[in-house]
Write a structure and sequence with these properties.
Spore Coat Polysaccharide Biosynthesis Protein SpsA, Chain A, 3-stranded antiparallel β-sheet, 10-stranded mixed β-sheet, 10 helices
Length: about 325
Amino acid sequence: MKIGVVILNYNGWQDTIACVESVLASRTSPAWIIIVDNGSTNDSARWLRHWAIGNMEFALSELGVFSPCVKPVALHDVDETESFDIPLGSVVLLRLKQNNGYASGNNAGIRLLKQAGADAVWILNNDTVVDQNALGAMSNRLFSKPRPGLCGALVSYLESDAIVQCRGGGFTNKWTGLSVLDGNKENLTTALLADPDAVEKRINFIYGASVMVSRAFIENVGLMDERYFLYCEEQDWAYSAAGKFDLAYAPDALVYHKEGASTGFSYKKLNVRLLWHLTRSRLLLTWKHTPEALPTVCLSIAYAALRMAWRRIVGARSVA
């Protein structure tokens, strides 16, 4: 199986370097790695080129890379207007002129890998670091299914790797639009005891920080819907494939996630722009797949907004 990897970078070259280094250390080598620079404004492309030739101004250990790959890395540096073929085993820096969102950026990488002949694409958030066995484990689990569609990993928090963020994915309630990640906040040892078949029956989407998608899925369901600038793309993909392709969970594929680094979102801090994107995406997902639930989803959003506002008011009073 030829597995290509897509890593989307937007102003996060430090995390991206750590992610790519971990993928390059995989026991099962990826057929290609596509780093998509999504219109970064902080000179990310230059720093990624410097990394590839080993010309860094500081030690890679400062980025969390303690066993770096041999340099130079043969980096193919191209922009979106160029037509080119990617050699097997290559690392490509695909530079996009502007940031049109998460779905659009990943789609650019997926198109390139589809053209190259990839059997599957592993989409990774740039703020992840992967275990050496993760790629092989996900590929094996994905293609063990009768209808290989999407496969998720066992994702834990990078800062506290014994605490799980999710097993594969989660479940979104269509009436509220709210999602729960399977196994969230469980101890890693406990999470590993779960039967993967049972997990696959519980979840209705694969968590987007680490999702492997088969070529057949892409050809039949299509690319990510680019109307989702940020958030809910993974739910939309899974909903669109319901009854046609299988969702898989590979418990022996460990991925460590620095939550919020790729988007800047944190539930502890209010970010109006990202909350707007999240709300818009939830409404779009509902309108597209379960329009009968729009009234209750709108009520759920309104309730969440009022609760957040109240907490901020109470918090401000307690400080005063």
